[in-house]
Design goal:
The complex is a heterodimer of chains A (about 180) and B (about 475). Chain A has helices at about 5-15, 35-40, 45-55, 80-95, 100-105, 115-120, 125-130, 140-150, 165-184; strands at about 20, 25, 30-35, 55-60, 65-70, 155, 160-165. With about 180 residues, chain A is of the alpha+beta class. Chain A folds into two domains: about 5-75, Arc Repressor Mutant, subunit A; about 80-185. In chain A, about 45% of the residues are buried. With about 475 residues, chain B is mainly α. Chain B has 18 helices and seven strands. Chain B has helices at about 5-15, 15-30, 35-50, 55-60, 65-70, 90-95, 105-125, 130-175, 180-210, 220-230, 235-250, 250-290, 340-345, 350-355, 370-375, 380-390, 400-410, 415-430; strands spanning about 35, 75, 85, 435-440, 445-450, 455, 460-464. In chain B, the strands form three sheets. In chain B, strands 1-3-2 form a three-stranded antiparallel β-sheet. A two-stranded antiparallel sheet of chain B has the order 4-7. The radius of gyration of chain B is 36 Å and the shape is elongated. The chains are: A alpha+beta (about 180), B mainly alpha (about 475). Chains A and B meet through helix 1, strand 5, helix 4, helix 7 and helix 9 of A and helix 9, helix 12, helix 13 and helix 18 of B.
Chain lengths: ~180, ~475
């Protein structure tokens, strides 16, 4: 059964375009099950119905939830593109620098603000950010304003940025697609 | 005057690091020849560790190449290339001292052993019904070969086992993912594992598998054939000995298989890293291609085409909305980790409602300006830092928050409950504590008697 207080809390997040992940990062870098996710998962049908009645589709991707406009559906891509561009810049720059991709996945590791500022200095990065309609923001600003705000990334106790469940899902999908296409 | 062979050899053994450096150079460069500079550097390093001048002089004399040549421990020093060729027996002795430095059998070595088994079998077949003296000689050749195979496989198995365990431990210990040097070291170790797996383990498994075809019969089948020949011609004792050698050789299979399974895991990890790297690289290149097509490089007014296939990777997030400013919360987030405090606050929301006397007690520092000022006040901060430096807590501790709180109350009069969270966090980072959160029926509660603050939390256990 839907719990009113949790439902209001969930609504406040979803309507603001935030993602609800399966796990949250605690201040001691422990991954703790997210109570909002559990609430949505336990009452999936009820919430799906609830959001459909107010004009939204509740999208469930296994490890996270978000809502999208029923009429626009998946035709609205602007935010997804901003996220993809930002994530690919991050991943490419850290792997090209010699770090492993697990720097972004491991809750005790993460990319620092200084590293983000350093990456932003590259003209190529500035151009990609501009083309993704992210204006003249630095990569650090993009991470804070978009990825952190949308909960694609999280900040750990060492003040470094790591991928949330939704961020990990993006890369899993990317790796799986590449693997499938290389096997063809 | 030169030192005798035994004195020189004892000196080398007493100072193993010099020949170890030589062996490492040989293995790293896959050569039998050692550059003179490498040897001299190792000797100088050794001499520098000695304080007594007489000892330094003695070592310089013993390790002098002319002396080692005279003692027969070095075969020659090539005057043109300045390469040294050590006596193979010397190198093999030092390999035996350290299992990590034992030489592994390569595919070529194993193929050579297999070919020699063929020759031995053919020789035996040729002489089995002929002259007894020739046959005895041939049987001796067979046993010498079997003994050599058994001994080399045993040494090889020991070496691989030791090397595999060392490399696996290096990976498992991990290192800091945020330090480039640690990451590079991990990749080097994974590459080494990959090399050993393909160069040494797979050929060994092939060699020890009876059903494997290596240029005709498998080595084990060749041994069986030798056994059968001896048995057919009633040399039952010899046939029995051959059978015993075969059993001794096959016992290595299980060990090699378990090493193989261990290394396979890391080999896959290395493959996964490469795949991830390639995948990110190719997706990024597609993105760059798409950007370059926008215009002549000036992107000021040009944006990505949403229907470009390179954006298919983000389809899981299609439809995700923009942030709505009208709905934005008015909380002014300061630059600290608010989620931690908010989560604690939310966890206690229900309980606070039930308890009429309690005020929102885990004072999230966001809402209590005074407390935030106090927390940030330099004096209090200094006190907390001093406390963190001096505190001694030994694992295991059942409830770390309670433990810190009781110690804190004894040390700092002005301390409050939010300091407990701060200290716990700092200590966990500084001392790499392993904390386990217990989601029990009820949350634990700490009460500050002076301020009547309450902190409800899930118990955190400090594990050893």
């Amino acid at each position: 059964m839907i719990q009113s207080e949790k439902s209001r809390h969930i609504y406040a997040d979803l309507i603001n375009g935030r993602i609800i992940n399966k796990f949250n990062l605690e201040h001691d870098n422990q991954l703790i099950p997210n109570a909002d996710y559990s609430e949505l998962f336990s009452n999936l049908e009820s919430y799906t119905e609830l959001y459909r009645n107010i004009g939204f589709e509740l999208v469930f991707r296994g490890s996270f939830f978000f809502i999208r406009d029923l009429h626009l559906g998946d035709t609205y891509k602007e935010m997804a593109i901003k996220i993809q561009v930002s994530l690919l810049i991050l991943a490419r720059k850290i792997t090209a620098a010699g770090f492993g991709f697990d720097l972004l996945e491991n809750e005790n590791a993460g990319i620092s603000a200084a590293q983000l500022e350093e990456i932003t200095q590259e003209d190529e990065v500035k151009q990609l950010i501009l083309a993704a309609k992210l204006g003249k923001k630095t990569l650090h600003e993009v991470v804070k304003d978009v990825l952190l705000e949308k909960r694609i990334m999280e900040k750990n106790a060492q003040q470094r940025y790591i991928l949330s469940d939704a961020g990990k899902y993006f890369f899993k999908q990317l790796f799986d697609q590449e693997k499938a296409s290389s096997e063809l | 005057m030169f030192a005798s062979t035994d004195i020189s050899l004892i000196s080398l053994i007493e100072n193993k690091q010099v020949i170890y450096a030589v062996v490492d150079y040989m293995d790293n460069h896959a050569t039998e020849l050692v550059n003179e500079a490498v040897y001299i550097q190792a000797v100088r390093k050794l001499i520098q560790t000695k304080t007594r001048k007489t000892e330094q002089q003695r070592l310089a004399k013993t390790f002098d190449l002319e002396n080692l040549i005279s003692a027969g421990l070095v075969i020659e020093v090539d005057k043109a290339t300045r390469n040294i060729l050590f006596h193979s027996a010397v190198i093999e002795i030092f390999r035996l001292f350290d299992s990590k430095r034992l030489r592994e059998l390569t595919n070529a070595d194993l193929e050579d052993l297999s070919a020699r088994l063929d020759n031995a079998r053919e020789g035996l077949l040729k002489h089995i019904s002929g002259d007894t003296e020739d046959l005895d000689e041939q049987i001796e050749v067979v046993f010498l070969l079997l003994s050599e195979i058994s001994s080399r496989l045993q040494t090889n198995t020991r070496s691989l086992q030791s090397k595999a365990q060392n490399l696996a431990e290096t990976i498992d210990v991990g290192g800091d993912l945020t330090l480039l040097e640690d990451v590079a070291q991990k990749h080097r170790t994974l590459a080494e594992i990959h090399k050993i797996y393909h160069r040494n383990i797979l050929p060994m498994l092939e060699f020890l598998n009876e059903y494997e075809q290596i240029k005709g019969l498998s080595p084990l089948k060749k041994i069986t054939a030798i056994h059968n020949i001896l048995e057919d011609f009633s040399y039952t004792d010899e046939a029995y000995r051959v059978q015993q050698y075969k059993i001794s050789i096959t016992t290595h299979y299980k060990t090699i298989e378990s090493i193989s399974q261990l290394l396979e895991r890391y080999s896959r990890q290395e493959k996964r890293y490469r795949q991830q790297y390639n995948c990110i690289e190719s997706a990024y290149q597609l993105l760059m291609d798409s950007a370059e097509q926008l215009s002549d490089g000036k992107l000021n007014t040009q944006y990505f085409n949403e229907d470009d296939p390179c954006f298919n990777h983000a389809d899981a997030l299609y439809g995700l909305k923009h942030y709505r400013a009208a709905q934005k919360s008015l909380i002014n987030w300061a630059d600290i980790n608010h989620r931690a405090y908010l989560d604690e606050y939310l966890l206690n929301a229900e309980q606070r409602k039930l308890d009429e006397n309690s005020v929102a007690q885990v004072q999230s520092l966001l809402h209590k300006e005074k407390q935030l000022e106090k927390w940030q006040g330099q004096q209090h901060k200094n006190e907390l830092e001093k406390f963190i430096d001096q505190i001694i807590i030994t694992a295991p501790v059942d409830d770390i928050y309670s433990e810190i709180f009781s110690l804190l109350q004894e040390s700092i009069e002005q301390a409050d409950l939010s300091d407990v969270l701060f200290i716990a966090k700092q200590l966990q980072i500084n001392k790499q504590w392993n904390l386990k959160v217990h989601f029990e029926q009820e949350q634990s509660i700490l009460v500050h008697t002076k301020t009547s603050q309450k902190l409800s939390y899930w118990r955190r256990e400090l594990q050893a």
